[in-house]
Write a structure and sequence with these properties.
The protein is α+β, with helices and mostly antiparallel strands. It has 7 domains: about 5-95, Phosphorylase Kinase, domain 1; about 100-320, Transferase(Phosphotransferase), domain 1; about 320-360; about 365-430, Trypsin Inhibitor V, Chain A (2-Layer Sandwich); about 435-505, Trypsin Inhibitor V, Chain A (2-Layer Sandwich), CATH 3.30.10; about 520-575, 2-Layer Sandwich (Trypsin Inhibitor V, Chain A), CATH 3.30.10; about 580-640, Trypsin Inhibitor V, Chain A (2-Layer Sandwich), CATH 3.30.10.20. A hairpin with a 4-residue loop joins strand 3 and strand 4 (about 45-50). Helix 5 packs antiparallel against helix 13. It is rod-shaped. It starts with a helix and ends in a 13-residue tail after the last strand.
């Protein structure tokens, strides 16, 4: 392991509380790759960490994340799996499948050029992985030997999906640009657009390099190489390596046509062609093996293991070329001399005009609005200013984004605008506040619609109680603020924030009236309404309800309104309440009759009513005074006399 790797401050660090960094295995212009241990799943992983000078670029960060999302959408044995993505302080990272081995670039440095079986083995695997990406609608954009991994166990995988888009930020060094531009499709040079056929062009350049040991275009400046991509045709690999079969010559020319429509439509079409070539040449894709195991320091090429041994017995086979291919080659040769000078002049003029437009008034004169959602305003403003744009703060209520955090920008992130343009940064003000009106008396459905219109959360099901209000109408509203646990009464209206929770209490109407019912009938009625009935009753007198019938239910023990599920106690009538017979002994007959009738009794005497009622006094009555009888009972004056009698006593006087 190199000294630089030993002194790397990340080695030994626990990233995001989960990934223990063990060693550095590769370093590029945008990221460094480490081997780490996933402590949670107890497995080795590759940890790609974005370089610190790029982690401050929010646009680059968002595009760095695209690599994880793009690769995670693919499930193919020839695509490097991406397991996780995240950040830990200043570190932005991807967690990928760990593949001990080397890259195709390292193999080319060691082998210079590859044999036909080696080349076909690698192309078969890379095309398989890229075909899965194209089926999923994903364009790699950065196909090159550095992104092809050759594992020690024989697997061949393509990685770094989405990273090419990230390198288009103004952060790539000249060396990085040279490394990518060598495989750049002409349409990316002239129009800046790419599709699956752009990946095919890059594959054709890589195929040429594997067969010849060198790239078809060279130059000291990226613009020189880009110009050759736009103007020159890729030569046949057999010019440099006579051992290249005609079929592979044709495949290189087909995949590197200047017009995208003249190339294979996607990786699947090119894969089908290379498998036809495999059958024609009698070559089966080789299993990639490595002679050693363990860590390979990619910064020390002397330690690279040679892979893909040449297969004996497979020779270059020249098969007949179809008539279409002959005609195309013949036409190309005849027209090349005539059109060459005109083509060069036109292309040079087009490139000059395009460059003038690009850097003068086209996209080259503009900058991209950075992605700042999730930052605070200060961080967002700094990112906007770093792009030579003018930040302007604006507030916006949001339920999802915490107060003080950036929600979005106008223009949106990724849009290209002129330098010094104003970018409005919308910072969350938190949930909006509203004055909530009273919904008491409304139907439950209307009240729910009113409250949800204020972005309040209405719990389900509604609370219910028995009341004098019509059934189905709201009688109470309870509000629980988002950041509190204690509810407040909102029946008569209140102030609330969006996202607060409210509970409606809805009337079931009054408790059913069971007065005058039998105990059985009253019990059935109340239980049908959702109440429970106690097995013990309360008995009391009632002058209007017959004995044994229900007078009503007892008062609620804790007060308040009855609710479904509450237990009620029946009050059952004992009939009319008896009254005590008053003491009338010694009174005149007239006074005695008056007292008895006032008490609710009927008074009877054998003495005809007249003046004698004032003369005679009561000596005895039946039933006797002090006994209890129901009102209306007949009290008979059984003994009367003249004179003192017993002075109102109960012992019976003289006749």
């Amino acid at each position: 392991m190199s000294t630089s790797a030993q002194t790397d401050p990340l080695i030994g660090r626990l990233v995001d509380g989960r990934y223990r960094v063990r060693a550095r295995i590769a370093r590029g212009g945008m990221a460094t790759v480490y081997v780490a241990t996933d402590l949670r799943l107890e497995r080795r992983v590759a940890l790609k960490v974005m370089h610190g000078h790029l982690s401050d670029d929010t646009v680059f960060q968002s595009r760095f994340i695209q690599e994880a999302r793009a690769a995670a959408r693919l499930a193919d044995p020839h695509v490097v799996n991406v397991f996780d993505q995240g950040s830990d302080g200043e570190i932005a990272y991807l967690v990928m499948e760990y593949l001990p081995g080397i890259t195709l670039r390292e193999l080319l440095r060691e082998e210079k050029r590859l044999t036909v079986p080696q080349t076909i083995s690698i192309m078969d695997a890379v095309l398989s992985g890229l075909a899965a990406a194209h089926r999923a609608g994903i364009i790699h954009r950065d196909v090159k030997p550095e992104n092809v991994l050759l594992a020690e166990d024989g697997r061949i995988k393509i990685g770094d999906f989405g990273l090419a888009r990230a390198t288009s930020a103004n952060t790539a060094t000249g060396a990085q640009l040279m490394g990518t531009i060598a495989y750049l499709a002409p349409e990316l040079v002239t129009r800046g657009t790419a599709d699956a056929r752009s990946d095919i062009y890059s594959l054709g350049i890589m195929l040429y390099e594997m067969l010849t040991g060198e790239q078809p275009y060279r130059g000291e400046q990226p613009m020189q190489i880009a110009f050759q991509h736009a103007t020159d045709s890729v030569p046949r690999p057999s010019v440099k390596n006579p051992g290249v079969p005609e079929q592979l010559d044709e495949l290189v020319l087909w995949s590197t046509e200047k017009k995208p429509d003249d190339r294979p439509a996607d990786a699947m079409e090119m894969l089908q062609r290379i498998r036809e070539i495999e059958r024609n040449l009698g070559i089966s894709p080789q299993v990639v093996t490595a002679a050693t195991s363990g860590m390979i320091d990619r910064e020390d090429p002397s330690e690279l293991t040679k892979v893909l041994p040449a297969t004996t017995g497979a020779t270059a086979v020249h098969s007949e070329v179809d008539n279409a291919a002959r005609l195309r080659r013949s036409a190309n040769r005849q027209g090349a001399r005539t059109a060459w000078i005109v083509t060069v002049v036109i292309l040079l003029a087009a490139l000059a005009a395009g460059a003038g437009w690009w850097f003068g008034s086209g996209p080259g004169s503009q900058v991209s609005v950075p992605a700042v959602a999730g930052l605070d305003y200060e961080g967002a403003a700094a990112a906007v200013e770093a792009q030579n744009l003018v930040p302007e703060q604006a507030g916006e209520n949001s339920l999802e984004v915490e107060q003080g955090v950036v929600i979005r920008t106008d223009p949106p992130a990724g849009d290209r605008v002129d330098k010094e343009s104003t970018v409005r940064i919308f910072v969350s003000l938190g949930p909006a506040q509203h004055d909530i009106p009273s919904v008491a008396g409304q139907s439950a459905a209307d009240a729910r619609a009113t409250l949800t219109g204020y972005q309040l959360i209405v719990t389900e099901p509604d609370a219910e109680l028995f009341s004098d209000a019509p059934a189905g109408t709201v009688v109470a509203v309870s509000l629980t603020p988002r950041l509190q646990s204690d509810p407040v009464n909102c029946t008569d209206g209140c102030t609330a924030f969006e996202g607060d929770t409210v509970t409606l209490t809805v009337s079931l109407g009054p408790v059913p009236d069971v007065r005058g019912m039998s105990v059985e009938a009253a019990t059935q009625t109340l239980e049908s309404a959702g109440l429970s009935v106690s097995g013990e009753n309360i008995a009391q007198y009632d002058n209007d309800v017959a004995a044994g019938e229900v007078i009503g239910i007892a008062e609620r023990e804790d007060g308040g309104q009855w609710r479904p599920g509450d237990t009620v106690t029946l009050v059952v009538s004992k009939g009319v309440q008896p009254v005590e017979v008053p003491a009338v002994i010694g009174l005149s007959v007239r006074d005695a009759v008056t007292v008895l009738e006032d008490a609710g009794f009927q008074a009877e005497t054998a003495l005809p009513e007249g003046s004698l009622w004032d003369v005679f006094r009561v000596n005895e009555i039946d039933p006797k005074a002090g006994t209890f009888h129901v009102p209306g009972t007949v009290i008979t004056i059984t003994d009367i006399g003249i004179g003192g009698g017993n002075g109102g006593g109960n012992g019976g006087g003289n006749d």
